[in-house]
Amino acid sequence: MNSPSLFAVPSLSTQQLRYLQTAARAPSWTEAANELRVTQSALSQGIAELERRLGIELFERVGRRRVLSSAGNEILVQADRVLAQAADLGRLAERLRHGFAGAYRLGLIDSAAVATCRPALAAVRRLAGDALNVIVDTSVPLTRAVQRGELDLAVVVADNAALTSGGSQLGSESNVAVTAVAEEPMVIVAPANVSTEVVTDPRRWGPWVMPPEGSTTRVLLDAALRARGADPTTTLESSNPTVLLSMVELGLGWAVLPDHAPGLQRRGTGAKPTGAKPTGAKPTGAKPTGAKPTGAEVVIIGELIARRLVAVTRTGAPSDPRTERFLVSV
């Protein structure tokens, strides 16, 4: 019996696949070349050679722009997987040579970095030492960085698009394991001079200072406010809770912030939120009972939602005791 024929494995380099990955996602090939620290000519030649070896046109021109072809999109999915596995191989080799002394790359959303995950961060720091690299970003970029093998672990909002869509933009982006970390109460914060009549009427809440449009938290907050009958019209956007709190103090709008946001309890006038679940949560109807009008800067109205945080790791990645330490310490 003849053995089954095998498809020839194309002779490709990880550099060529990295060129494809970067050129596909950068706003322009000029920016892609800058990110890769090569000339645009070298980038073009590298992609042309990749196309030659695959026998497939990866990009097509639309006006003056070069965009991925339909075949290029399918090839990119596989390129993401190959590069992530190549990164796993490199880390495994490093750990076999040096033990677990190699770099450990951890991604956190801002509130996880400053509050929710501080004990776990400290535990990993003791284990990893100077090899710990921490990146603070928003949920979708962090999730995709894990899925591409660029981070070992990230703590993100559970409902982010890279998880809920299964990575619809990139088929490889569903390959993650998810571990529940915490439920984070998000409280409505208003300027100190808000009246009781406004507090008790959600139709009069706002305007708002919010996380950027399209971000995971913004989508959750907009939906929750509409469900309460409030208009989520936004006058200022920032991903930094400290900036949003400062804008509320200046009277530029209302915000919804983690109840442990830096400075909120120190500067706020209300009692600490009760931690009630979001289902059926109601505003207090007045300024919190523990208010002290002297020096008041903001008023905490009440909880709007409880944001779910999860830790994501890539399935198939080599085991690492630093990941295990983080997950048991969080």
From TrEMBL:
It comes from Candidatus Neomicrothrix parvicella RN1. Residues 261-293 are annotated as: Disordered. GO terms for molecular function: DNA-binding transcription factor activity; transcription cis-regulatory region binding. Belongs to the LysR transcriptional regulatory family. It holds the Pfam family LysR_substrate. This is HTH lysR-type domain-containing protein. It comes from the Bacteria. Keywords: DNA-binding, Transcription, Transcription regulation. PROSITE patterns: HTH_LYSR. Residues 12-69 form the HTH lysR-type domain.
